[in-house]
Amino acid sequence: MAGYSDNKDPVLARLKRIEGQVRGLQRMIAEDVYCIDVLTQISAATRALQAVATGLLEEHLNHCVAHAITAGGPEASEKIREAVAAVERLVRS
């Protein structure tokens, strides 16, 4: 079971709002909206995606990683490595 399973509906709702933001960006480009206004909206969509990502990471740490650590063994080390790699990807983006 995924760590976010208990919060799937709110996550999906947020992603649908972000999808709407991206569609709005497409309209802005089609309508030749001023560059800075488009960039502002891109920044807002990026922040929204980052918020979803950090929420999912938190759920992963609280559920999957914590469970693996409690169980012990090599799975615990693997889950920690996965989490570190995920944080590195988020930091680079």
CATH class, named: Mainly Alpha
- Average predicted local confidence, pLDDT: 93
Order of helices and strands: HHH
Structural class by SSE content: mainly alpha
Shape: elongated
Measure the end-to-end span. Answer: 27 Å
Number of helices: 3
User: What is the makeup of the main sheet?
Assistant: none
Work out the radius of gyration.
17 Å
Q: How many domains make up the coordinates?
A: 1
**Poorly predicted runs:** none
CATH fold-level label: Methane Monooxygenase Hydroxylase, Chain G, domain 1
- Count every beta strand, where a strand is a DSSP E run of 2 or more residues: 0
Looking at CATH, the homologous superfamily is Metal-sensitive repressor, helix protomer
Can you give the helix content as a percent range?
over 70%
The proportion of residues in beta strands is under 5%
Just name the CATH architecture. Answer: Up-down Bundle
Descriptive account of the structure:
- The protein has helices at residues 8-30, 35-71, 74-92.
- By secondary structure, it is an all-alpha fold.
- The protein has three helices and no strands.
- It has a single domain, classed as Metal-sensitive repressor, helix protomer (Methane Monooxygenase Hydroxylase, Chain G, domain 1), CATH 1.20.58.1000.
In a few lines, what is going on in this structure?
By secondary structure, this protein is an all-alpha fold.
Name its key features.
93 residues, mainly alpha, Methane Monooxygenase Hydroxylase, Chain G, domain 1, elongated
SSE topology sketch:
Elements: H1 8-30, H2 35-71, H3 74-92
Helix pairs in contact: 1-2, 2-3
